[in-house]
Amino acid sequence: MLKALELHPGVRVSLHYTGSLLDWLLEAHPEFLQRLSELVKRGQVEIVGGGYYEPILPSIPDADKVGQIRHLSEKLQQVFGITPSGMWLAERVWEPALPRYLHEAGIQWTVVDDVHFKYVGQEDSDLYGYYATEDQGHMLKVYATNKMLRYTIPWRPVAETIDTLRSLATPDGTRILVMGDDGEKFGSWPETDRYCWGTQTEPGWVETFFSALEEHSSWLHTIPLGEYAQKQPALGRIYLPTASYVEMSEWALPPRKAYSFGKLLHKYEETRQDEALQFMRGGFWRNFLVRYPEINNQHKKMQHIHHKVYKAGATDEHGLHHLWKAQANDTYWHGLFGGIYMTHVRSAIYHHLIKAENAADRVLHGTAPWQQYTFTDFDFDTRDELLVESDQQNLYFDPQRGGTLFEWDMRRSAHNVLSVISRREESYHRTLREHEQERRKQLALSAQAEKKSSDEKSNVQEPASPHTAVRTKEHDLDRHLTVDRYRRASLVDHFLPPGLPMNSFAHNRYEEYGDFVERPYQAAVKQDATGTEITLSRTGSVRRAGALNPLPLHLSKKIVLPPGEEGLSIRYELTNQGQVTLQTRFACEWNLNFLGGGANEQAYYYLKQREPARVPFDGTEELHEVQELHMGNAWLQQDLRLEVSKPATLWRFSLDTITGSEAGFERTHQGSCMVLTWPLELAPGETWSVEMAWTGQPELMAATESFFSSVAR
What we know:
Keywords: Carbohydrate metabolism. By secondary structure, the chain is α+β, with helices and mostly antiparallel strands. 31% of the residues lie in helices and 25% in strands.
C-alpha cells in the first residue's frame, strides 16, 4: 500500500496504525515508518489517532479511555511530528457518552458506519459530509463510512466504483463519500494478495483503482478527513444511538436469534428492501459479557486491576501500560473470526493483567509474602465469589456454581492456568452443518459435483468476502461439534455411571448421577500465619444405577493455600448419609490452558510411569493407577506437579472448538480437560477421602527430566 501511494501522489488518504503495530514497526521495520513520514510531510497521508492498544472504548474505565487516546497522540507526535485531529473507533462501537471523552482527549472527529445514522432515520443521500454531535457540551464531528464503497472496494471491478461516484458528483465539489475499513482486506484475506497487488506482468486491483482516481481527478478528488473537517461545515447536528457495525450487532445476539437475524438481513438485501434494512437492529455489544462468562471474567478482572493500578499511582511503574495492553479488544467479543476463542491472545490478555497486578501490588503490599481473601460480587450477578490473592498466586472460587475454581493466576510466570473457554453453540455452526451436508450430498452424486462443491481455490476474478464465503480447513468438521452443558472451570465434582467411556464424557453423552455440578456450596474461610484454609461443602444426592431413589451424600473439599508458595492442597471427604450402600464413580475435573495447541513442543504432560514420559499437552488418553503427574509449558517457565493420595484413573482430552477464521472453519485447541476418577462403595454413614497436592515452584522444572534444557536451547 505504501509503495502504491508513493507511485500515485495524487491519491490522498487517512491511515490509522495501532500503538501495538507502531511499537513493532519501530523495532522491526523503522524504514517503513521513514517512508510513511515522507508521505505525511508532503501532505498525501494524514495519520489518524485512536486508543493506543485498540480498546472498545465504552468497555473500559473513563480514565483509560482518555489516557489511551492521549498516549497514541503523543506517540504520533514523536514519530511523525504531528498531533492527530481524528481517531479510528475500534470496531465502530459507539455509545452516546463518547463525545465527552474524545473531546477531552483532544479528538475533533471520528468515523462510524452509515447504519449508525440510518437508525435515526437518515438516508444515503443525507450522508455526503459529516455531522456534529455532543455530550454535555463536548462537540465531536462524525463521518459515516459508506456501505456501497465498503462492499465494492476491493471486491468489485474498479469501473463500478468510479461510475457510482460519477453519478453522485456535484459542480460545487462539497460532497464527500468516506470508505473506512480494515487494511487486511488488501492482501491478508484469502485470495486477495494477488488480486489486490497483481504480478510483474498484470496490475492488481489497487494499481487499477489508484490510476483511475488520478485519471478522473478533474471531478474526483481524494482528501484526508481532517482537512475536509476543517474546510467544510457540518451537514447538521445529530445524536447517534448505541450501535456498532451490523455484523457485530448480529454476533452479539444469542445463536438462534443471530442466525435468524442474518437470514433476514440477506433476504432484505437480495430483495432490496432498504426500508426494512434501515431499521434492522441486532444486539448490543455489551451483551458479549452475558453470552460468554469467560469474556465477563476477563472484563471484570480488568476492572479489578484498574482499581489496583490507580490506587498504586497509575503510572507505567505501577502497571498502567500492562493494564492498557490488556484492554486490547480482540478477545472481549466474538464474531465470525477468532475473538475470545483465540487461545494465545486470551492468554496474553491475562499475562498483561497479571503483570499490571504484580506492579501495583508491589506498591500496595511491599515485597514480603502476603495473603488476603475477600467475598465479593466479582462478576456482578448479585452472588459473591471468593477471591484469594497473595504474592505468589491468585485463586478465584465460585461457591454458588459448584464450589468451582475459575481462575488461577501464577504471579511469577504471569499466566492464568485456567484460561479455558467452554464449547458453545454458535450461529455459524448451523451454516457449517448446512455446508457439510450439502458437500456430502454432492459427493454422493458424482466426483464432478464434489469438485464444484468443495474446491477452495476459485478462479473467479473477484475473491469472495470471508463474511459470505463458506470455507473449511478440513472436511466433516460438523461431526466434531460439541456443546458443553456447564462452564469448563476446575474443581468440578461429578458422580458418573459405572463403566462410562471417556469418549462419552468428552462429548457430553452421559448422565450426571449427582446434583453437584453448578449447584450452590457453602463456603467458609480461615486465615492465619500458616496460610488460608477454605472449606466448600454441599449436601446433595446421588442416583444409583437401577434404583429409583437417590441417596443423600455430603461432600466437603478443604483447600489449603500455604503462604509464599505456588500451589494448594485439597482434601475431599464424601459421606453416605443414606440408609443403604452407595456404589458410584466419583470424578474431579480440571480444565487447564498451557498453550498446547498443534502439539506445541513447549507444552506437555509428563508421567514417569509411561513411555514416553513426556507427551503433547493437547493429546487424548486414559491411564490407570495414576498418583503423580506433571504438566506445564517450558516457554512459560511454568510447571505444575499433581500428587494424589489414592491411585486414580486419569482421563485427559483436548477441548476443541469449531470456530471461524479468514481462511475458513477450523478446530481450535482451548485447553486440556483432565479428569481424575475413583470407584466408590460407601456403606451407610461411611466416609471416603482423597487428597490432592498441586505444587508449582520453579525448581520443579528440573524434576521433569533433561528435555527442559534441550527445549530451552
